[in-house]
Design brief:
alpha/beta; Urease, subunit C, domain 1; TIM Barrel; 8-stranded mixed β-sheet; 14 helices; 18 strands
């Protein structure tokens, strides 16, 4: 069965221009675009009466297994229990218009396969398995008084600890063995980890380069959690392809982004949400006190990066009950960017980062038939995308999946 979207204003994010056209979708792809298209007899026709149609959204930094903000508790949870929560979280992401997401640690091949086979509703899921952390790093959730560490190989933790060049090579190879689309590395301190400082750097340059080498050998890439300019710049010099957060970058960082053709994935909404609601959804007090160190700097970092021409992708990094704010990132970025640039971050630019250029984030013939029918023009008011109630239809792989 095919689908025909009739009488649409179809946006090309690359040019920022709308075209009056019909779209015909079959076998999960856009197969035809143009005025007054005809279609086979079994085609479902949706006349959208001149509504604005954009590609399905891409969130390049999610944690679909993070049903609580107490990330340290995940490793002791039953995988089946976490999966039940993840299925709900993914279905709600799809209802908000996100048809593809990149998980930044926690999700595995089981969730990706279940979504692909239609066992659970949700965005197309690009996973990395468990993020790599040094001892005392951003994925080491032991308190200061704890000594023993259980890797929980069967369970749902977000990270694994590996120290030394040989150990990080093994860890990276192991995640790649399990099908990781990318490797996540913790290159600085973070909010959710109990014993590190936001302004610390993590992993030696030799360790970072070894992780990058293993990813590149498998034709994959590395995404690095990093906040300060010092941490970001070290990661970029080591060959990391995308920096997650980057709230405290400087002008030297911008030059390195451009030189290495790397991407920045700001996640402004998570700090706004953690400050407002973090403790209510399980964020420990010690972590909540760290939020201020990165909250105010995030918007300034985005402005610096955008002004400098850095490649930007849309990311949210939300946890627990705060996932519902996923679309609010559009409003926050509008403070320093034009609507078309914010939309590109969630379509064409994110697709390029994920290796899906020409397949996702576009409605060109041959691309995935992922699209949103909107109640309003997001280029005139980005709030159209910030409010899921403005979505008339969500189409994924040529099927209406939410309305």
């Amino acid at each position: 069965m095919s689908l025909l979207i009739r009488d649409a204003l179809v946006l090309d994010p690359a040019t920022g221009e709308y075209t009056e056209a019909d779209l015909r979708c079959a076998d999960g792809r856009v197969v035809e675009s143009g005025p007054r298209l005809s279609a086979p007899a079994d085609t479902r026709v949706i006349d959208v009466a001149g509504a604005h149609v954009v590609p399905g959204l891409i969130d390049a930094h999610v944690h679909v297994t993070a049903f609580t903000a107490d990330l340290g508790s995940a490793g002791s949870m039953s995988p089946s229990y976490v999966t039940a929560h993840s299925a709900r979280i993914m279905g709600e992401m799809l209802d908000r218009g996100f048809t593809t997401v990149r998980d930044a640690s926690g999700a595995d091949h089981g969730l990706a396969d279940a979504q692909e086979e239609g066992l659970i509703r949700g965005p197309r899921l690009l996973f990395c398995g468990k993020g790599l952390s040094q001892t005392g790093g951003h994925s080491d959730f032991r308190a200061r008084g704890e000594h023993l560490h259980d890797e929980h190989p069967c369970c749902a933790g977000l990270g694994r600890i590996a120290d030394g060049v040989d150990a990080v090579r093994v860890a990276a190879r192991d995640e790649l063995r399990k099908g990781a689309h990318h490797i996540k590395v913790m290159a600085s301190g973070g909010v959710a980890s109990p014993t590190d400082r936001i302004d610390s750097t993590q992993y030696s340059m030799d360790e970072l380069r070894a992780i990058v080498a293993e990813a590149e050998a498998a034709n994959r890439y590395v995404a690095a959690h990093a906040y300060t300019a010092r941490a970001v710049n070290r990661a970029l010099e080591a060959g990391v392809r995308s920096i997650e957060h980057g709230n405290l970058i400087d002008d030297a960082s911008v030059e390195l982004f451009l030189r290495h053709e790397a991407y920045l994935v700001p996640t402004l909404v998570t700090y706004w949400a953690l400050k407002e609601e973090g403790p209510a959804f399980g964020l420990p007090e010690s972590s909540w006190r760290k939020v201020d160190a990165v909250l105010d700097a995030g918007l300034a970092a985005l402005e610096r990066a955008a002004r400098g021409g850095v490649r930007l992708a849309y990311g949210t990094d939300l946890l627990g009950g705060m996932h519902r704010h996923q679309n609010h990132e559009f409003r926050l970025r509008r403070e320093v960017q034009q609507p078309i640039d914010v939309l590109r971050a969630a379509t064409t630019c994110a697709a390029e980062l994920l290796g899906l250029a020409g397949e996702a984030g576009t409605l060109a013939v041959g691309a995935y038939a992922d699209l949103l029918v909107l109640d309003g023009d997001p280029l005139a008011d980005i709030g159209v995308l910030a409010d899921p109630a403005r979505l008339r239809h969500v189409v994924q792989a040529g099927m209406i999946v939410s309305r």
